[in-house]
Design a protein that fits this description.
about 525 residues, alpha+beta, Dipeptide-binding Protein, domain 3, eight-stranded mixed sheet, 16 helices, about 30% helix, globular
Length: about 525
């Protein structure tokens, strides 16, 4: 073992001998790896943002910890006709400043989302299908869509509702500066420091059960060792993203509990198939290539066969992941049972490269984060080594999360490795796999501008089918083509979400990943 590893291990053991104080009184301190980029609930659709914002804001429809749709600011919903959804609003619901919740707040929130400036991940795909918010009576609204859209309830589980009383000129900067803190969630925001900490207090006007904590602090602790040290020392009482290297030792320590669930997210590899000359692909002499090999499905399939998903899940992720063939774990509606993880077959990979006209391979760079996901840098290095073994000389460039996604949004990469999470396979497809289409609001997470027009056409037809059984069967065929036959984007593994807390606390794991203060309770 290296001297540095020995030192860090000894430091953690020493900290473990300190008193791991449980949450005292009615206050809770949590340490999180990820941290929100904004306090504006309409600025950036991203996992860490959505989990953070759920403390302060509610939606018409909520998702429980198993991702089931449940009543939120709406108590029920039904399909009136193919283009009209009726939502019954919750009587007596109020915002944290005491303002009554009405249908006008829904209309205001939907109209505000397209006006958000410089959004790195827009909420527009969830409201774009809605042509009109029609207020029928104080407790009833109709959401009118331009065409049949069976996913309205699922979309409403993504959109936070703000009070119209904050005004038409409410800017993202006003939220970030603390000038606007009103919401309708279980807590009220009291302090927000980007990249540092957030404090909140129980919202007395929340429509649901009272939050179990009067005061909560969320600390941003991006470094895995520092986050574990804070837990062992009692500086925080709950953490997310437990490092997989610490799992065995933590499970043996009776003072703590480990809480884990399979995550509704996937680790993927995406390719630039848009440009003939992509910035990080070269021939074996190091010269830029004017013919992009990644446009050829045989090359993408070769890369997929070169990846040993089982080894990554078992060794690199130390069992905290399962190999993936679908956008969500097999069995979720719309996932294809025919799409199993691509078999690891280096010889088949080399054969496909020869058939595509690249018997000697080429040079490639994979870009990935080094501080966003569990073992993200190790996974990227493993991918690079596996591709190199079939003749694609692959280098890996790692960047911090904040730098990485800004560059990815500018289409700066040729191949990128990242993760995407959603409770709905159709949402995953339209955001991550579909060709970028600003007008439709599709491809919002398609940062390499990969494209499969044939699969996209099948998808757009499938999502208009109102019958759930027929729709899911049609979506399965889309996945077979895009993810299997054409390898438009590669699914690598489904990671687990892992949390830890003192033994006297219970953390309810959430399949979407957030560590939510109202889901941390005393035994």
């Amino acid at each position: 073992m290296h001297r540095r590893a020995l030192f860090l291990s000894a430091a953690l053991v020493a900290l473990a001998s300190a008193n791991a104080n449980p949450a005292s009184g009615q206050e809770l301190v949590m340490g999180m790896k990820g941290f929100t980029t904004s306090a504006d609930p309409h600025f950036h659709y991203a996992g860490e943002n959505n989990g953070f914002l759920e403390h302060f804001h509610a939606r018409l429809v909520q998702e429980d910890a198993q991702l089931n749709l449940t009543p939120g600011l709406a108590v029920s919903w039904r399909l009136v006709n193919d283009t009209t959804w009726e939502f019954k609003l919750r009587p007596g619901a109020r915002f944290s400043d005491g303002t009554p919740f009405t249908g006008n707040d829904v209309a205001y929130s939907f109209a505000r989302i397209p006006r958000i400036e410089n959004s790195p991940g827009s909420y527009q795909p969830f409201v774009r299908p809605i042509r009109e918010v029609r207020i029928i009576d104080p407790q009833t609204i109709h959401l009118i869509t331009a065409q049949p859209h069976p996913f309205v309830p699922a979309d409403m589980a993504k959109v936070f509702i703000l009070p119209a009383s904050i005004g038409q000129d409410a800017k993202t900067a006003d939220f970030n500066a603390g000038r606007i803190t009103v919401g309708s969630g279980p807590f009220r925001l009291t302090e927000f420091r980007i990249g540092e900490r957030v404090t909140m207090e129980r919202n007395p006007h929340y429509y649901g059960p009272a939050a179990p904590w009067s005061r909560v602090t969320i600390r941003s602790i991006r470094n895995d060792t520092a986050r574990m040290a804070a837990l062992y020392a009692g500086d925080v009482q709950a953490i997310d993203e437990v490092p997989v290297s610490e799992l065995e030792r933590l499970r043996r320590d009776q003072r703590f509990g480990v809480h884990q669930t399979a995550g509704a997210r996937v680790m993927y590899v995406a390719f630039d198939t848009d440009r003939d000359a992509s910035p990080f692909i070269r021939d074996n002499q190091g010269r830029p290539m004017t013919r992009n090999p990644l446009k050829d499905a045989r090359v993408r399939l070769a890369i997929s066969h070169a990846i040993n998903r089982q080894a990554i899940a078992e060794r690199v992720m130390e069992g905290a992941a399962v190999p993936a063939g679908n956008l969500l774990p097999t069995g979720a509606p719309g996932t294809s049972p025919r799409l199993q993880p691509m078999p690891f077959d280096p010889e088949r990979a080399r054969t496909l490269l020869r058939e595509a006209g690249y018997p000697d391979g080429f040079q490639l760079t994979i870009h990935a984060t080094n501080d966003r996901y569990p073992n993200d840098s190790k996974v990227a290095q493993a991918l690079g080594q596996m591709l190199t073994r079939i003749g694609i000389q692959t280098s890996v460039e790692l960047q911090p999360n904040a730098v990485y996604f800004a560059a990815a949004s500018r289409q700066s990469f040729t191949v990128m490795a990242a993760q995407y999470g959603s409770s709905d396979v159709t949402q995953s497809y339209r955001a991550l796999v579909h060709t970028f289409d600003r007008e439709r609001g599709f491809g919002s997470a398609n940062r390499t501008r990969h494209s499969n027009p044939a699969a996209d056409a099948m998808f757009r037809e499938a999502i208009t089918i109102m019958d759930e059984g027929r729709r899911n069967a049609a979506i399965e065929r889309v996945m077979d083509k895009a993810l299997g036959e054409d390898a438009t984007i590669l699914m690598i593994y489904h990671p687990s979400y892992i949390y830890a807390a003192p033994a006297n606390l219970v953390v309810t794991p959430h399949a979407a990943g957030p560590l939510l203060a109202h889901l941390v309770r005393r035994r």
